[in-house]
Write a structure and sequence with these properties.
mainly alpha; 6 helices
């Protein structure tokens, strides 16, 4: 609700400043209009007042009208604030529900996010767009996970078979020393390929957060 409160407070400050300016500008207008009306009523009824009495009555009327205006202005502002907060909570609640579910979303769980249905068209379109985006991300993550699992079995098995065949050739007494060196070099290269494959698979699993168990390690002590 913090973002909504900031947005609401900013709007209320602008509205209050605008209303204060209008109220301040209205006081001279009140004074001029009531003075003219007061003088018209006196002239119509042939009433003559001293300048002091006229000013006193005029200030009294102006003061009463100003106080009433300030009272109704405060009442209107308070009602506007209460109504605006109530409407804003109802309007923005679907957005914060969506935001909460996005924060709780875990890609490694491979679970789809179900957003609440909103009567507001904009929020409903937002939920649909975010839902499609998350579904695509889940599908891509699932494919990457399946690839790493398949690669771990499909690649390591042929490499192990080839390496075992080379070891058998090395044990054959009928091969020459040159052939033995070639087989040894091929065996070393194959061992490097096997290690690289294991390291790449390990990096892929780390990147995809496939290790559920986590443990704190003291690096200084380990070194």
């Amino acid at each position: 609700m913090g973002g909504m409160n900031k947005l609401l407070n900013k709007s209320l400050k602008r509205f209050t400043a605008y209303a204060g300016i209008v109220l301040a500008c209205s006081i001279p207008v009140y004074y001029f209009a009531i003075s003219e009306l007061w003088q018209y009523e006196l002239d119509e009824h042939n009433i003559v007042l001293t300048p002091e009495a006229g000013r006193e009555d005029t200030f009294l009327i102006i003061g009463a009208i100003t106080l009433l205006t300030v009272f109704f202005f405060a009442l209107l502002l308070g009602g506007f604030v209460w109504l605006n907060r109530k409407i804003s909570r109802g309007l923005w609640q679907p957005f914060y529900n969506t935001l909460k579910k996005i924060k709780e979303f875990d890609l490694s769980s491979l679970k789809q996010v179900e957003f609440d249905t909103s009567k507001i068209i904009e929020f409903e379109e937002l939920n649909n767009s975010i839902g499609k985006l998350l579904d695509r991300n889940v599908a891509v993550f699932r494919q990457q996970k399946e690839f790493t699992e398949n690669a771990s079995h499909e690649l390591q098995t042929p490499l192990a078979i080839v390496q075992s065949k080379l070891d058998l050739l090395l044990q054959d007494e009928g091969i020459s020393s040159g052939q033995s060196q070639i087989i040894e070099q091929a065996n070393n290269a194959l061992s490097r390929v096997s290690r690289i494959n294991k390291n790449l698979l390990l990096l892929a699993k780390i990147e995809n957060q496939q290790f559920l168990e986590k443990q704190l390690i003291d690096v200084a002590k380990a070194l």
